[in-house]
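Curious: can you check?
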Amino acid sequence: MPRTSREGWKTWGDVFDEFTLRTIFKLAGRGHFEHLESPVAVGKESNVFTARTKDKGRVIVKIYRLEVCDFNKMFDYLKYDPRYSIIKKNRRKIIFSWVQREFRNLMKAREGNVSVPKPITFMNNIILEEFIGDENAAPQVKDLHPKNKQDFAKKIILNMKRLYNSGLVHADLSQFNILNYNENPVLIDFSQTTTISNQRAEEFLERDIRNIVNFFAKLGLRLDAEKVKKEIIGKL
């Protein structure tokens, strides 16, 4: 059983409404983790925590906030994804589908040998993922620039290529959604990721490429967006 009391969970703020608390206790009761440890990121739509497991390891617990999520924006992304095109515009169903989608995307990315956290499980508005880091969580690339910019950029492009060959486009890739773990990129935040059969897939891919090109340009490394695109959509 989890060691943290219901009142203890509430100290983390309004992310823990009663429904979310019940979901947390179900996941903890099934042995996925024992207690939350510390917040990694606090956003408008989700909060990300580390949690301790029974064997003293760590996992990431990502909780989408039911009352403040921009479910209209989520719906706009989901309705173009062939896997969710028949979804109804209902707040909780959209948020739950958003979480399921992130889990499915991570699974598919892992199968394609993309460097992403291993998805562990999901339930309602919560997804559990592999903890990336050593003593502390690996930082975002925006906070820890790579020492070898060219090598790091090549690794990102390779992962984008592998993702594309797996039938997916990240659709929200930037320095905010890439971790720098021992000078290796780890792609995160896959809720917006969609299939290449999505009618907006090319638009999303070009935006991802533009974000990466612009970021490295600020670091003094020039990349050709058209060449990067050709590299990604080619065959491995």
